[in-house]
Design a protein that fits this description.
Elements lengths: L2 E2 L1 H17 L9 H6 L20 E3 L2 E2 L2 H8 L1 H4 L6 E6 L14 E6 L8 E3 L10 H8 L25
Antiparallel strand pairs: 1-3, 2-6, 4-5
Amino acid sequence: MPRLPGRSLKGLLRDALYRAEAWHWPQIAAGTTETLFGSRLKERSGRPDENLSTSGSLRVGDAMLADEIAQYLASPAGRTLVPGLFREHFSTAIEATGVAREHSLRGMQVVVPLTLYANLAEVPGIPVPIPDWRERLQAVFPLITAVGAHRTRGFGRARLSWKEI
């Protein structure tokens, strides 16, 4: 089944928030990225048991199909439809003469356009010091235009939106 790992989605959200913070967006205060997503590795002080990063206060789950759709596709009747969710894409390098370069054919599997859902929640036991964190994250959604592999080459176009459940 199509799925976007929560780790990848969290990285995209973190990067978008970091860029907005670096660009001094008025609705994104300094330190928001580190507060919500934790700090990255800091300089090593020489102690091998030292934790070099800090935890964030948000948890991002895997983005997957809606439960009803996934259940249907897992049923005997739906299994025949699963191959239709994927396409094969092939590309090759072309020489200056217009001829395909030897041994340059590459293939990949891509997913047809569809809607995936991910759970984004506060980590239990860690208070979020930013009460309007949902609005701040939603403000940076337009900075995420693609997800997955080859997103900088035109694949994985995405539009993020917020849905309360």
